[in-house]
Amino acid sequence: MSIAKVTEISATSTKSFDDATREGIDRASRTIRNMKSAWVKDQHVKIEDGKISTFRVNLAITFLLED
Description:
By secondary structure, this protein is of the alpha+beta class. The chain has one domain (4-64): Dodecin subunit-like (2-Layer Sandwich). 18% of the residues lie in helices and 57% in strands. The chain is built from one helix and three strands.
């Protein structure tokens, strides 16, 4: 039987939502083993001087617990 856990993280990028998602998963993979999926729960932008300055995603990452 497999047991999974879900943890939430936030990641940002000055390029795009896609880049923020990739950066978040890349960073999480350095400390979380057995990652199986990620769900983008929310997307937000920060606006400065009328332009998007930062893209932020909130991710729910699912990983299998080790025996």
